[in-house]
Amino acid sequence: MKPIQVGLLGIGTVGSGTFNVLRRNQEEIKRRAGRGIEITMVADLDVARAQSVVGEGVTVVSDARAIIANPDIDIVIELIGGYGIAKALVLEAIAAGKHVVTANKALLAVHGTEIFAAASAKGVMVAFEAAVAGGIPIIKALREGLTANRIQWLAGIINGTTNFILSEMRDKGLDFDVVLKEAKRLGYAEADPTFDIEGVDAAHKATLMSAIAYGIPVQFDKAYVEGITQLGAADIRYAEQLGYRIKLLGIAKRRDADAARHQSAGIELRVHPTLVPAKRLIANVEGAMNAVMVHGDAVGTTLYYGKGAGSEPTASAVIADLVDITRLHTADPQNRVPHLAFQPGSLSDLPVLPMTEVITSYYLRLRVADQAGVLATVTGILAGAGISIDAVLQREADEVGGEGSTQTDVIILTHDTKEGTLNDAMAQMQALPTVLAPITRIRKEELA
Ligand code: HSE
Question: Which residue ranges of the chain lie beneath pLDDT 50?
């Protein structure tokens, strides 16, 4: 089957990430989607710059409507942003029978009702994983993974700029204005950061999540929105002393009717600075990272964490939508979501490696005789095997075996090495008469 053809409207940071990741991982993506996916046309006002990003094989135009008019294009990615021309182009693409993928949270939070209705009438998809929390697949989690649940509440750090500012204010005890200036200098805040710092961007995202969680229309105009501009460094400090961190949260919460408490049923939809117990995982989400907690009646509390912005993290979400559309709408029925994520005919024969081929780093603890030269012999064996040492800790003999002890513990952290190589080195160390007990080995992963 020939590749599905995609037209890209706007090739800035996320657009170039999408183009590059799609090209870099094209074989793997094809094996998942059941069909190749290619960006064959790009529209951007700066044609020369766009052409330099995509190379000569891709048609670049300045008029986005040339893409919408092209009958060979099946999917249009809208990465222009804003409500103006982006809205017109999304509606025109839908009218032309194209599926649409967009990262435009502002557009969908405000005009989603109109856009989704147009897409339903035309039988096309408008997919927007990239619009909420960048690379975190929170839309898919809410819409599919948690579909059994009544969602009781969700709460998220869904704006990286403000989380970076709050982290800096807390770490350095600085005031908002000072940190904002620094955030702009470092590129964490845009030249005009109004939407971020006033909570509007987070409210767009919370609005979209509330619609998916509760099956209500998108209603940005009903959201309560309060940003972080009035927050003082003193409040962050006092909250800390009381065991809390202050985070800008986007919250959507179901409230059931309760006559005794004069409570009516409805959905709370709000964005504001919030005290969160410091021991909660989400309270420790620092810098520009995002995280969303979702509490469902069956599953309990779940947490999703990752990069909420940036070129390739957001591209990751855009391309996930391209794959969904390709699987569900343009391939044959065999190509719906496969059991093992890859199409059955595309499984690879890459082997699962034997443990001796695994590469990782290690914690080793050796109970040794407290004698001259023992450490040198042990490290000599590691050096001879080409295993690099990261750190060594030697306990005082007294600490290990009590006063006058003749034994001690040597703890070694290694850098990455092959397990088979370490096995050989461990066997040599274990055979030393000065190694008095079986060596303890614990594998170490930095998970960075
Ligand atoms: N400006 C947003 C943020 C990223 O700071 O998280 C895109 O939504």
Answer: none
